[in-house]
Design goal:
With about 50 residues, this protein is mainly α. It has one domain. It is about 70% helix and about 0% strand. It is built from two helices and no strands. It is elongated, with a radius of gyration of 21 Å. The termini are far apart.
Length: about 50
Amino acid sequence: MHQNSPPFLKQSFSAVQDLDYAEVISKYNLQLTGLQAAQQSFAKIQGVVIV
C-alpha cells in the first residue's frame, strides 16, 4: 500500500487482508441453501390455490 493512499483505502485493504475466508464461504453456503429451499417451496406451492 502506498504511503499517500487515502485512509479509507488503507482501511478497506486491511479489512480484506484480515478476512476469514472459511467463515465467509460457510456463511455464503448457508445463505445459498436457505435461498434454494425457499425457491423449491415457492415452486411447490405455485399450483396450490388458496381460497
